[in-house]
Amino acid sequence: MPLVEITLAEGRSPEQLRSLMAAVTQACHDSIGAPVPSIRVVLREVPKTHWSAGGVTIAEREAASQQGDPS
Asked: How far apart are CA 38 and CA 35, in angstroms?
């Protein structure tokens, strides 16, 4: 029983998340032959204020890009 855990920043629609889960399930089935009913996919959404790279959060990067700051 494969278990795939995906962590991503919040902000996607329920339809996008559902599509991701379906695609990952299919990819797992296609690549290792696991039976579809046994494949588990867990999505964890993290607030954009709780995810950073280089000490800058995703929220800060988005705010800067909306103000024209390319950093």
From this structure: 6
